[in-house]
Write a structure and sequence with these properties.
This protein is of the alpha+beta class. The protein has a single domain, classed as 2-Layer Sandwich (Glycoprotein, Type 4 Pilin), CATH 3.30.700. It has two helices and five strands. Strands 1, 2, 3, 4 and 5 form a five-stranded antiparallel beta sheet that branches.
């Protein structure tokens, strides 16, 4: 029996101190907060990416209508798109519409609260050699890019800035 009492050192218990437990809990909370925020950003970016994929389907229609008429299409019908804008969207969209060549994505109530009800736009610009370049959100047009319709002196597509936080936007839209 004598050896049994010497298995632990006198004055030292085998558990954690209160300070050690508080530190572990605090570190766990901080990691949880940072991880939760990163997860939300990831989810919102995925919803925006899915919405942009839906809108990309309208780009060829806008380009074809412009090449045929020489002016950016005023709306969906002028672009040759017959689908109702409320039906055309995915699960996170309220609608996808066309306004003077610009494609406007209105994010719906099923989207994350950080982006629900906000609009993200794809705006067509033209280069000197008549290529069409699409800019997303708050992306700044590069040198030589003019709004679609500029070269012909017609109605021009106008860029619409978004109020969606930059951290949620894909790099091409910032």
């Amino acid at each position: 029996m004598r050896g049994f009492f010497f298995l632990s050192k006198p004055g030292r218990s085998g558990g954690f101190t209160t300070v050690e437990l508080v530190i572990v809990v605090a570190v766990t909370i901080v990691i949880g907060i940072v991880g939760g925020s990163a997860w939300q950003t990831y989810v919102v970016r995925g919803q925006i990416a899915a919405s942009l994929e839906q809108a990309a389907d309208l780009q060829p229609h806008v380009e074809a209508a412009f090449r045929q008429a020489g002016v950016p299409p005023a709306d969906r019908r002028a672009a040759g798109v017959r689908v109702d804008p409320r039906i055309a969207g995915g699960p996170y969209l309220e609608s996808i519409d066309i306004a003077d060549g610009r494609i406007d994505i209105l994010l719906g109530a099923q989207a994350d609260a950080a982006i629900a009800g906000q609009t993200l736009s794809l705006t067509p610009f033209e280069t000197a050699d008549a290529r069409i370049v699409w800019l997303c959100g708050n992306q700044t047009p590069g040198v030589g890019l003019q709004p679609l319709g500029f070269a012909g002196g017609a109605r021009e597509a106008s860029q619409r800035r978004t109020s969606i936080e930059p951290r949620y936007l894909p790099p091409a839209c910032r």
